[in-house]
């Protein structure tokens, strides 16, 4: 067996600044792992996230011993076991799923029994800005069925109402990215109850969400930063009614599959989410989308240029990548037969 491995930093310029309560970005800085085995190449992408003390350099450093193991002939699980949940493990885990599909000639859909929907509604994001700018951004995507609204603790009502005014037919996911406290959340209850709210996502900081114990507003509160892996789920009961599955938090598709089963067993509603990234990061998450009530997979929509053959997002609907892009058991040679 001949195997080579690599991990590379790739920067994808955004078409517009992406602002949340923690800051702003103008490019998606990602890490791409490739594992080549006997002429077949598996690819995976992840997004190092400062919220979890990750940088491109730290993720590349974390990957180094795992990739060395693979290059020396270790089995995939032996390489993955040196990595904890997070971006490094995600990139490698997804690359190994892609490689396995090509090696076995079976799609990830067949291997997991989780088909990729031929088309799905995805939230499109209105990033944090002035109320006037957010209203204009919402008006530009008003045909989308589902809009995510990034908010902070600074005048959230004005910003939210501006978006609702511009897109009156859309359901809204409200996402403060841990930027509120309980008093602010509860004070907004009349406005949130009156609007077409699909979810309120992670309003309080992770680790301070005990205030949600027993809180039962007329809308669903969804955990994001408070849930990373399947072992986190049990502690969230009584605080959240839904959870957001993200491969970069879980450490790849393998752990996300355990989370999917565990969340359903605990009775949580499900959303599959993403970081701002290319279609290479989104493709594995599409296998979770068919089992989730909501998808927030508009990461590639923010890129100035995505991969050829990647996902297509228009009017709030996502079409999966072209055959051969990721995880379908097709090699480049197969595409020409």
What descriptive keywords fit this protein?
337 residues; alpha/beta; Enolase-like, domain 1; TIM Barrel; 2 domains; eight-stranded parallel β-sheet; three-stranded antiparallel β-sheet; 11 helices; disordered C terminus
In CATH terms, what is the architecture of the largest domain? Answer: Alpha-Beta Barrel
**Gyration radius, to the nearest Å?**
20 Å
Q: For this structure, what is the CATH homologous superfamily of the largest domain?
A: Enolase-like C-terminal domain
Q: Which whole number gives the mean pLDDT?
A: 95
Q: What is the N-to-C succession of helices and strands?
A: EEEHHHHEEHEHEHHEEEHHEHEEE
Taken from the alpha-carbon principal axes, the silhouette is: globular
Strand order, biggest sheet? Answer: 5-6-7-8-9-10-11-12
**Looking at CATH, which topology of the largest domain would you report?**
TIM Barrel
Distance between the termini: 25 Å
> Largest sheet, if any?
8 strands, parallel
Ranges where pLDDT stays below 50 over 5 or more residues in a row are 333-337
User: Proportion of β residues?
Assistant: 15-25%
Give the strand tally.
14
Structure annotation, total helices: 11
Number of domains: 2
Secondary structure category:
alpha/beta
What is the CATH level 1 assignment of the largest domain? Alpha Beta
């Amino acid at each position: 067996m001949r195997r080579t491995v690599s991990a590379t930093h790739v920067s994808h310029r955004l078409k517009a600044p992406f602002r949340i309560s923690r800051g702003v970005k103008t490019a998606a800085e990602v890490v791409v792992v490739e594992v080549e085995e006997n002429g077949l190449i598996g690819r995976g992408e992840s997004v190092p996230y400062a919220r979890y003390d990750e940088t491109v350099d730290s993720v590349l450093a974390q990957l180094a011993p795992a990739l060395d193991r693979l290059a020396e002939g270790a089995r995939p699980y032996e390489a993955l076991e040196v990595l904890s949940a997070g971006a490094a493990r995600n990139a490698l885990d997804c690359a190994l799923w892609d490689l396995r599909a090509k090696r076995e000639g079976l799609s990830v859909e067949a291997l997991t029994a989780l088909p990729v929907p031929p088309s799905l509604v995805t939230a499109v994001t209105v990033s944090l800005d002035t109320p006037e700018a957010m209203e204009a951004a919402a008006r530009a995507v008003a045909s989308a069925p589902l809009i995510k609204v990034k908010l902070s603790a600074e005048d959230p009502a004005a910003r939210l109402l501006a978006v609702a005014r511009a897109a009156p037919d859309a359901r809204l996911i409200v996402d403060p990215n841990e930027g509120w406290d309980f008093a602010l959340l509860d004070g907004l209850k009349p406005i949130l109850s009156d609007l077409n709210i699909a979810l309120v996502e992670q309003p309080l900081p992770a680790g301070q969400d005990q205030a949600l114990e027993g809180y039962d507003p007329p809308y669903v509160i969804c955990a994001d930063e408070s849930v990373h892996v399947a072992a986190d789920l049990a502690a969230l009961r009584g605080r959240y009614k839904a959870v957001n599955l993200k491969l970069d938090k879980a450490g790849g598709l393998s752990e996300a599959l355990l989370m999917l089963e565990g969340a359903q067993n605990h009775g949580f509603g499900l959303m599959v989410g993403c970081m701002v990234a290319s279609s290479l990061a989104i493709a594995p998450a599409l296998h979770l989308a068919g089992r989730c009530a909501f998808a927030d997979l508009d990461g590639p929509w923010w890129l100035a240029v995505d991969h050829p053959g990647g996902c297509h997002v228009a009017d709030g609907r996502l079409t999966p990548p072209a055959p051969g892009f990721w995880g379908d058991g097709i090699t480049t040679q197969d595409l020409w037969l």
